[in-house]
Amino acid sequence: MGRPPCCDSAGIKKGPWTPEEDIILISYIQERGPGNWRSVPTNTGLMRCSKSCRLRWTNYLRPGIRRGNFTPQEEAVIIQLQGLLGNRWAVIASYLPQRTDNDIKNYWNTHLKKKLKQLHASVAAPSPSGPTSNLPLPLPGINHGGAADYASSTDNISRLLEGWMNSCKPRLTTECKRLAGEDGGAAGFERSTDNLSAGFLDGQQAQLPLSLLESWLLEETAAKQVEELMENSPDAWPRPLF
DNA sequence: AACTCTCCCAACCGCCCTCCG
DNA sequence: TCGGAGGGCGGTTGGGAGAGT
């Protein structure tokens, strides 16, 4: 059993935040920085519990949050990472730094689940035209065991990253050179792959490669490359989880 | 115009993890 | 080593908005 809820004391306000409350919270965090949420209600006079303050900040008020429709590239990243990692929304969100875990979770539950079910239904009745561009962005180098193994195996993730990195190494190397300068490119690439692997395997936020990964994933040519690869070696890709 | 239905998303709840005394 | 406290995460819900009748 966990601890009793922190918000059950009398006088704690629930429900939607008002603009006034938002301003108070923002002002406080601008002054003190995020963290020590327990002290926020006390120091600000907000009649909210600490969790509510943290949630409001991380999911709504935090700078850099992107709102509105998800791009096809973002969808592809979510679908692929969900297949790999399961419902670990916080980890998935770390690869889409402009989106919150709550947003991603909501988007998955309201849009992508349905979309993938429909997609799976249509894949069950295959058309002669082959794969379409709406399929999830696939990643190579993974075994085809059961869904649970697939989602939980760090070996698989490691292999996947290895294969993935190898398959796109030329492009990434070029990108690294562009970002880091000619002399630091190769070293930068090696550091990037190490960091990315570590980030995946530890379930923590990857550091350096985020911008790299993002810039690569957001390029439409990437999706095209993947489509070509799928057509050339369709058996090399993991099956969708549902 | 009024009512019902459906969808979406902000927020809550309960549990787990980590830290610290 | 143990237990309490705080932070974090994933699942779920409730209410508002828009669509449909």
Automatic annotation (TrEMBL):
Domain Myb-like: 9-61, 62-112
GO molecular function, one term: DNA binding
Record-level GO cellular component terms: nucleus
Swiss-Prot/TrEMBL keywords: DNA-binding, Nucleus, Repeat, Transcription, Transcription regulation
Localization per Swiss-Prot or TrEMBL: Nucleus
All copies of domain HTH myb-type, residue ranges: 9-61, 62-116
One BP annotation, GO: response to auxin
UniProt KW Lyase keyword: no
PANTHER family to which the protein is assigned, alphabetical: MYB FAMILY TRANSCRIPTION FACTOR, TRANSCRIPTION FACTOR MYB60
Protein name: Uncharacterized protein
Species whose genome carries this gene: Spirodela intermedia
